[in-house]
Specification:
The complex is a heterodimer of chains A (about 500) and B (about 475).
Chain A (H helix, E strand, L loop, with lengths): L1 E3 L7 H11 L3 E7 L5 H9 L8 E5 L2 H6 L3 H14 L3 E6 L1 H6 L3 H11 L3 E4 L9 H23 L11 E7 L6 H14 L3 E7 L15 E3 L7 H11 L3 E2 L6 H17 L7 H11 L2 H6 L1 H4 L5 E6 L1 H15 L2 E7 L5 H8 L5 E4 L3 H11 L3 E4 L1 H10 L3 E3 L18 H27 L20 E2 L1 H9 L2 H17 L4 E2 L1 H12 L1
Helix pairs in contact in A: 1-7, 4-6, 7-9, 8-18, 14-15, 16-17, 19-21, 20-21
Chain B lengths: L1 H4 L4 E4 L12 H8 L3 E7 L1 H10 L10 E5 L2 H4 L5 H16 L3 E6 L1 H5 L4 H12 L3 E5 L9 H11 L10 H7 L1 H6 L3 H12 L6 E4 L4 H12 L5 E5 L15 E4 L5 H9 L4 E2 L7 H16 L6 H19 L3 E4 L6 H10 L3 E7 L8 H14 L5 E4 L3 H11 L3 E4 L1 H9 L4 E3 L1 H5 L8 H18 L12
Parallel strand pairs in B: 1-12, 2-3, 2-4, 4-5, 6-7, 6-8, 8-9, 10-11, 10-13, 11-12, 13-14
Helix pairs in contact in B: 8-13, 14-15, 14-16, 15-21, 16-17
The chains are: A alpha/beta (about 500), B alpha/beta (about 475).
C-alpha cells in the first residue's frame, strides 16, 4: 500500500478510453462498477465535447460479484452494436474487473458472433501500466487488428503514395494542446510538400487504418503515445519513423532534417535547409527573441521543469539551449521511460529527478527557489503557495489548459507560443520582485479617492525625473507610496530626496 | 380516463446503466464537515483519479483525506493488510493527529474481501485513534449514498449516555463560573424555558454549518430543541443517542443511517418530507411538531412570505417541464418542490428508491401533483441513460437535470440542462435557501433567454 494524495498519470483504462474515443465511430464498453465512467465527465467538461462520449459501462454490481457477468457483457456489446452501429467496440477492463478474473476474451468472442461491428478486448494490466502506457498499447493493438484483418482479406493496399507522405501518430483526445499541435504539424507538412496520409487516432476511422502502410514515413511527435505503433509499422512494412519532437527552434529543425533524410533515402530529392533558415531567422520570432535584450535579462535565471517526458525534455532544452536560462533540475513522472529522459536532458540541467511523488517535487521546488517553474497544474499550485510563477507545460491539466484560441506547442508557431509562455512567467516574477522592493503588494490604506495617481502634491523637477526612471509598470505604485509618505510627513513638495526617503522608509 | 390513470405514482426499474459519481466522493464534503477527521480511501488508482478530478481545486488545499493505494502485492495477498494499514495510519497519526480515521472501503476491498471491519478495532486499540469503517463502494451504492454509509457507521459511535449534567459540569468548572459571575447560568435557564417539554430530538445528515444553524433556529421558534446533529462539527462532539430518542433525517439518501438509528440505537424515526423548498420545510417542521404534540405557529405565513419573494423566479418556470435523469437521490424532493412552483415533471430518474424512508416525501409529491392539477411523474429507479436520452428527444422537456457527462452534449442539441451535482453542494435546505434552488434551476433558462434571438440553439450537424 502507498499513501497517495495525488497522481500525475491516470489509471490504465483512461489511456484505452482516450484512444477509443479519439477514433470516429468506435465505442468503448468498460467492465466497471457504477461511478467509474468519470472519463465521460472529463471529456465532456475539459474538451467541451458537443457529442456524447462513446463510452458506456457494463456495470459490475453485487450480482456480478456473486455469479459473474454471465450474459451481461455480451448483451451490452450487442445492444450497443444495434443502437449506435459503431465500427468497433473495445471492451475495456478496469482495475476492479481485472481482479475478478472473468474471461473477458471469451465474452468478446461470443459477442463477435452476433455483433455486426468488430469487437476487441483491450490488452492492459491495471497494476503494471499507467494511462500513458495503456494508451500507447491500445493504439498499437487497434492498428495491428485492422492491418491483419485487411491482410487476411487481401485488402492491404500495395506500394507507397506517389508523393512523399506521412502518418501523424499520437494525436488524441484529452492530450495537452493536441488539437492545436495537430493543425500546426499538418501546416508544417504542407510547407514541406509532404502529404498527410493519415492522422491517428484523433478523428480517424478504423476503416482507414489499412492505408497506413502507404505513407513514406511515420511522425511520432509525442514520446508517450504512438511509438509502439510506429515500431510495429516499421517491423511489418519497413516504414521508418521520426520520433524527434518538433518543439522549440532547434528541435524543429532537427525533426525537419530527419524527415529530409528519410524521404530522400526513398527517392525524393528535397532540401529543406532554406526553409529552416527562413523560418528560424525571419518567420518564427523565437530565434530573434533569444537575441533580443528581453531575453538577455533572463540569462542565468533559475528555472525548474517537470512534466511528461516529451514536454519536460523539450522545455528543458529550449530554456537552456535557446534562452540561456539556468535549469536547476528537470524531471518527469514517466518513470518507465527514465533512461531516455536522462540522456535527453542531462547536459542541459544540473540534476534530473524522476518521480511520481508530487510531495518530492514540491520540496525540490522549495529547496531551489527558482524564478519560474514549468510544470503541471500541481506545480502551478506549489508555485502559488511559494509565490513563484508557473507556466503549465504538461498534463495533468485543468479546463483552462484546453484553450479555444490557437495555441500549439509544436512547429514554428509553437515556438512563438512557448516564448510568450516563458517570457510572461519570468516578467511576472520580475514585476512581483520590483513591487516588493518598492513597497509591497497591496496598498491597504486609501491614499486618495479614486484610482488615479493625480494629487494635490507637487513634484519638483528632479523628483519627477527620478520617478520617470522607475520602470513603467511599477511607477504608479511608487508614486502613490511616495505621496503617501509625503502626506504623512506634511511634505508639500516631492523631490528626489523625498522619493528615496520614501523608498527607504518602505524598505525598513 | 387517462387522468384517473395518472393519479397514482408509477415506479419502474431500468437497467442501471446510468452515470453518477462514485460514493467515495462523500469524503470531499465530509472531511470538511467533520473538522478533526481524516478519511483514508482504501482503493486503487481509479478511485484516486476520480477523487482528484472530481474535487478539482479542493485537492490542493492539503485535504484531510488520502488514498491507501493498493498495489499488486496487496491484491495477491503477498503483503499483510494489517501491517500495511498500520504503517499508513501511524503515518497519518504522526502528520495530522486526527480524532478519527475513517476508512472508506471500495470495490477492490470488497472483491478481495479485505476484512476492514475486523481489522479496525484491533488497529484502533493499538494506535489509540478511533477507526470508523464505511463501505462506500460503487458495487452497492451511488453518489450521496456514500454519506449514508459513513453516517450509519458513525451512528454506532455516538455516546449512549448523556454526559455529566449541567449542574455537575458547573461545579467542576467552579472557577469559570466565578469568572462568569453566574451570568451564563441565567442565560441557560432562560434559554431552556423557551423550549417546550419534549423527548430529545437528534437530526441526521451532513449540512453546511450555516444551514445547521438555520434549521435549528427554525425548530427553536416552535419550542423544539435539537439535542444534537449526526454528524457534528467534530468527531469528539458526536451527539448522545439514548434508547427512545427521536431522530429525523434532513436528506432523502440517508436510509441506512435511519435504519441503524432505529434498529441498533432503538430510536424513533420521524418520517417526514425533507426540508427542501418552503413547502418541504414547512411540512418537515409540522411533522416534527405533530409527533411531539406541539401546535406549530406562524408557519403558514412564513411559507406564504417565502413564496411571495420567490415569485420573480417562479414566473420563469411556471408551466415548463423538467426531466430528472437521476444521480443523487435528491430527485423526489426537488421534483415535489418544482411541481409546487408550477412545473410539470414527466420523469424522475433516481438511483435507488427507499419507499419506506421516503414515504412521507412520496405522499407529499402525490398530493402536490393532485393539488396543482398536473399528471403524476413516472419514477424510474436505476435508469438507463441511453433510453432516457431517447425519451428526452421525444418529450423535448424545457429543462433536463443531469450529470456533467450529458450536459454539454444535450446543450449542443438545443436542450436546456442543469448540472445535478450542484444541488448536492449548494445550500438548499430550509425556508431561506429555497431561493438558491430556484437560482440554480432558472439559471440555464435565464442564460438561454439572453441568447434566444441569436439562432444558436443547435450546434451539432444533423447526421
Amino acid at each position: 500500500m502507498k499513501l497517495a494524495y495525488w497522481m500525475y498519470a491516470g489509471p490504465a483504462h483512461i489511456g484505452t478510453l482516450r484512444i477509443a474515443s479519439s477514433f470516429k465511430n468506435v465505442h468503448a464498453i468498460m467492465h466497471a462498477p457504477l461511478g467509474d465512467d468519470y472519463f465521460n465527465v472529463m471529456r465532456s467538461m475539459l474538451e467541451r465535447d458537443r457529442n456524447f462520449t462513446p463510452v458506456t459501462a457494463s456495470i459490475v454490481d453485487r450480482n456480478v460479484l456473486a455469479r459473474g457477468s454471465q450474459e451481461k457483457v455480451v448483451d451490452n456489446i450487442t445492444r450497443k452494436d444495434t443502437e449506435e452501429h459503431p465500427d468497433l467496440i473495445i471492451l475495456t477492463p478496469t482495475c476492479t474487473s481485472s481482479i475478478l478474473q472473468e474471461d473477458l476474451a471469451n465474452f468478446v468472442e461470443r459477442a463477435q458472433i452476433d455483433a455486426k461491428c468488430d469487437v476487441m478486448l483491450a490488452d492492459v494490466n491495471h497494476y503494471r501500466v499507467n494511462e500513458l502506457q495503456a494508451g500507447d498499447r491500445t493504439l498499437q493493438q487497434v492498428v495491428q487488428f485492422y492491418i491483419e484483418k485487411a491482410r487476411k482479406k487481401g485488402e492491404l493496399p500495395q506500394g507507397k503514395t506517389e508523393k512523399p507522405s506521412v502518418n501523424i501518430i499520437g494525436i488524441s483526445t484529452l492530450g495537452f494542446h493536441n488539437q492545436h499541435d495537430c493543425t500546426e504539424l499538418k501546416r508544417l507538412m504542407g510547407d514541406l510538400g509532404i502529404e498527410v496520409n493519415a492522422v491517428i487516432p484523433e478523428g480517424a476511422s478504423v476503416q482507414e487504418l489499412k492505408n497506413l502502410p502507404r505513407a513514406w514515413f511515420n511522425l511520432c511527435p509525442y514520446r508517450e503515445l504512438g511509438l509502439m505503433t510506429a515500431k510495429y509499422l516499421e517491423e511489418q512494412f519497413g516504414t521508418p519513423y521520426v520520433d524527434i519532437t518538433p518543439m522549440g527552434v532547434v528541435e524543429t529543425a532537427r525533426c525537419i532534417r530527419k524527415i529530409q533524410q528519410i524521404v530522400n533515402a526513398q527517392g525524393a530529392d528535397v532540401n529543406y535547409e532554406d526553409f529552416i533558415n527562413n523560418q528560424t531567422l525571419y518567420v518564427s520570432q523565437a530565434a530573434w527573441f533569444s537575441r533580443s535584450i528581453d531575453c538577455q535579462n533572463l540569462t542565468g535565471k533559475k528555472a525548474v521543469v517537470f512534466g511528461d517526458s516529451t514536454h519536460a525534455a523539450a522545455m528543458t532544452k529550449i530554456l537552456a539551449r535557446e534562452m540561456g536560462i539556468h535549469v536547476v533540475w528537470a524531471g518527469t513522472y514517466c518513470k518507465y521511460d527514465a533512461e531516455w529522459f536522462q540522456t535527453e536532458v542531462s547536459e542541459y540541467c544540473d540534476e534530473v529527478i524522476i518521480t511520481e511523488d508530487h510531495g518530492q517535487i514540491g520540496d525540490a521546488i522549495a529547496r531551489v527557489e527558482p524564478s519560474a517553474i514549468f510544470g503541471t497544474q500541481m506545480e502551478r499550485h506549489v508555485g502559488k503557495r511559494l509565490d513563484i510563477p508557473c507556466g503549465v507545460i504538461a498534463a495533468p491539466i485543468h479546463i483552462q489548459n484546453f484553450p479555444i484560441g490557437y495555441k500549439p506547442f509544436m512547429g514554428y508557431e509553437g515556438t512563438n507560443q512557448i516564448t510568450d509562455l516563458i517570457y510572461n512567467s519570468f516578467t511576472l516574477g520580475m514585476e512581483d520582485h520590483l513591487l516588493e522592493i518598492f513597497g509591497g503588494h497591496d496598498t491597504k490604506e486609501v491614499i486618495t479617492k479614486g484610482i488615479s495617481a493625480e494629487s494635490d502634491l507637487s513634484w519638483t523637477k528632479d523628483g519627477l525625473a527620478e520617478l520617470n526612471k522607475i520602470p513603467g509598470f511599477v511607477r504608479g505604485k511608487v508614486k502613490r507610496n511616495t505621496e503617501k509618505f509625503a502626506r504623512e510627513r506634511r511634505i508639500q513638495e516631492i523631490s528626489a530626496e523625498v522619493l528615496y526617503a520614501a523608498k527607504e522608509a518602505v524598505g525598513a | 380516463m387517462t387522468v384517473a390513470e395518472s393519479q397514482t405514482l408509477t415506479f419502474e426499474c431500468e437497467t442501471g446503466n446510468y452515470h453518477t459519481f462514485c460514493p467515495i466522493s462523500c469524503v470531499a464534503w465530509l472531511y470538511q464537515k467533520i473538522e478533526d477527521s481524516f478519511f483514508l480511501v482504501i482503493g486503487t488508482k481509479t478511485c484516486g483519479y476520480f477523487l482528484q478530478n472530481a474535487m478539482g481545486v479542493m485537492i490542493f488545499a492539503e485535504p484531510r483525506y488520502a488514498m491507501a493505494e493498493l498495489e499488486e502485492g496487496d491484491i495477491s495477498a503477498q503483503l499483510n493488510d494489517y501491517e500495511e494499514l498500520k504503517r499508513l495510519c501511524t503515518q497519518i497519526k504522526r502528520d495530522r493527529n486526527p480524532s478519527v480515521i475513517v476508512w472508506i472501503g471500495t470495490c477492490t476491498t470488497e472483491i478481495i474481501k479485505m476484512d476492514l471491519e475486523g481489522l479496525a478495532p484491533k488497529l484502533e486499540s493499538e494506535i489509540g485513534i478511533p477507526i470508523v469503517v464505511a463501505r462506500a463502494n460503487g458495487l452497492d451504492y451511488a453518489f450521496t449514498q456514500g454519506e449514508d454509509t459513513v453516517l450509519a457507521a458513525m451512528a454506532n459511535r455516538c455516546p449512549d449516555k448523556a454526559p455529566v449534567t449541567e449542574t455537575a459540569k458547573n461545579d467542576a468548572n467552579a472557577i469559570q463560573k466565578l469568572l462568569n459571575f453566574g451570568k451564563k447560568k441565567e442565560e441557560v435557564a432562560q434559554e431552556e424555558s423557551e423550549y417546550k417539554d419534549h423527548p430529545p430530538l437528534v437530526l441526521f445528515g451532513s449540512l453546511p454549518d450555516p444551514v445547521v444553524t438555520q434549521l435549528t433556529l427554525e425548530l427553536k421558534k416552535q419550542g423544539i430543541k435539537v439535542s444534537g446533529w449526526l454528524p457534528a462539527k467534530r468527531f469528539t462532539e458526536l451527539p448522545t443517542i439514548e434508547e427512545g430518542y427521536y431522530v429525523c433525517g434532513v436528506n432523502p439518501f440517508l436510509s441506512r443511517t435511519a435504519s441503524t438509528l432505529m434498529r441498533r440505537r432503538k430510536c424513533k424515526l420521524i418520517g417526514a418530507p425533507f426540508p427542501i423548498g418552503p413547502d418541504g420545510s414547512r411540512a418537515w417542521i409540522e411533522k416534527i411538531c405533530s409527533v411531539f404534540g406541539i401546535t406549530p405557529v406562524g408557519l403558514e405565513e412564513r411559507e406564504a412570505k417565502i413564496w411571495e419573494n420567490l415569485e420573480e423566479y417562479v414566473k420563469l418556470i411556471r408551466g415548463k417541464s423538467v426531466f430528472f435523469m437521476g444521480d443523487n437521490l435528491l430527485e423526489i424532493s426537488l421534483a415535489r418542490f418544482l411541481v409546487r412552483c408550477g412545473m410539470t415533471v414527466p420523469e424522475i430518474g433516481i438511483p435507488y428508491m427507499d419507499k419506506r424512508y421516503q414515504a412521507a416525501e412520496l405522499a407529499m409529491l402525490e398530493k402536490t401533483c393532485i393539488e396543482m392539477g398536473v399528471p403524476l411523474p413516472r419514477i424510474v429507479e436505476k435508469p438507463d441513460n441511453y433510453n432516457q436520452v431517447q425519451r428526452i428527444y421525444e418529450l423535448k422537456p424545457d429543462l433536463v437535470i443531469t450529470g456533467m457527462a450529458h450536459a454539454n452534449p444535450l446543450e449542443a442539441r438545443g436542450i436546456n440542462t442543469k448540472w445535478s451535482v450542484e444541488f448536492t453542494f449548494a445550500q438548499i435546505h430550509g425556508f431561506s435557501n429555497a431561493r438558491d434552488i430556484l437560482e440554480l434551476v432558472t439559471r440555464p433558462l435565464r442564460r438561454n433567454n439572453n441568447l434566444k434571438d441569436l439562432g444558436w440553439d443547435k450546434l451539432v450537424k444533423e447526421m
